[in-house]
Specification:
single chain, 286 residues, mainly alpha, 13 helices
């Protein structure tokens, strides 16, 4: 990023949004690079890199590198309070660290290596949430309506607090209804949160369990809508995830571990011989 590009970026976006743009760019580019890297490693391409492992067989996950980058960049931001180009560079490096960490978010949550399982798709969701939040801020959306443009003093504080409370209430209702993406985007675009809060809940959500138990028509409507959604955009969503993150190929981590083999029952002859052998051992000891 040159000084001219920095001036154009800050003049068009402002210093704060320019830094958020740099953070989002670092996060997105690093995530795509990491996914390309891991897919090539999984394919065992001979001319590509391999997993980072110590001599003792310790596998170093790339979230470790991400944590180191975030710690170092955070210390630099706190200690030096950079401005302009340096702030945007720190934001980009910090975004790269966040990408490396969130790409293995499912592993951190489950404390299991679920990277190539269906549960590992939660990491992709986490990255998409972070990228979407950055892009919405760059585009000028304010989380939960926190903008107080044109107001000052106590009036601004009252408007901001009341707006945040109302918007967050709609977002929480969406989350209780199982509409996680609608609830997230509703924080930035309140009309989405209002629509999601009004419409029927997903049949597996806490809201449906508590409120649709005695309303079979309402539950049937929720199930019809869920089937329609699964047959349309969720199929496209899985195909998109396969494209950018690779298709899961390992069995689900939810599969129960095989139980330990139980002890075989003793036969009648063995059971009769056991007391005799024990008595013989005591006689020998005496």
């Amino acid at each position: 990023m040159t000084l001219a590009a920095q001036a154009v970026g800050e003049g068009f976006l402002g210093p704060t949004r320019a830094s958020v743009a740099a953070f989002t760019l670092g996060l997105l580019v690093t995530f795509l690079a990491v996914r390309i890297n891991t897919r090539l490693i999984r394919a065992k391409v001979t001319w590509w890199f391999h997993d980072i492992e110590s001599e003792g067989g310790l596998h170093v996950h790339h979230m470790v590198i991400g944590v180191v980058l975030m710690v170092v960049t955070g210390l630099v931001l706190i200690a030096t309070s950079p401005e302009g180009l340096w702030l945007q560079l720190c934001a980009m490096v910090f975004g790269a660290g966040v990408a490396l960490t969130l790409d293995e978010f499912a592993l951190i949550l489950r404390l299991q290596d679920v990277y190539w399982t269906a549960e590992g798709r939660l990491s992709v969701d986490a990255v998409i949430v972070a990228v979407s939040a950055g892009l919405l801020i760059v585009l000028g959306f304010h989380p939960a309506g926190t903008s107080s443009a044109g107001l000052a003093g106590s009036a601004a504080a009252a408007v901001v607090v009341s707006t945040i409370a109302v918007n967050l209430c709609f977002a929480v209702v969406c989350l209780m209804k199982g509409k996680y993406w609608t609830g997230f985007f509703g924080i930035f675009v309140p009309i989405l949160g209002i629509i999601g809060a009004i419409r029927v809940a997903r049949p597996t959500s806490p809201w449906a369990h508590r409120r649709y138990g005695k309303k079979p028509k309402r539950l049937a409507k929720a199930q019809r809508r869920e089937a329609h959604v699964n047959a349309t955009w969720r199929a496209w969503r899985e195909a998109f995830f396969d494209l950018i993150a690779g298709k899961p190929h390992m069995p689900s981590a939810a599969v129960a571990q095989p139980a330990e083999p139980s002890q075989q029952p003793q036969s009648a002859d063995a059971a009769e011989a056991a007391p005799e052998s024990a008595a013989a051992e005591r006689a020998g000891e005496s």
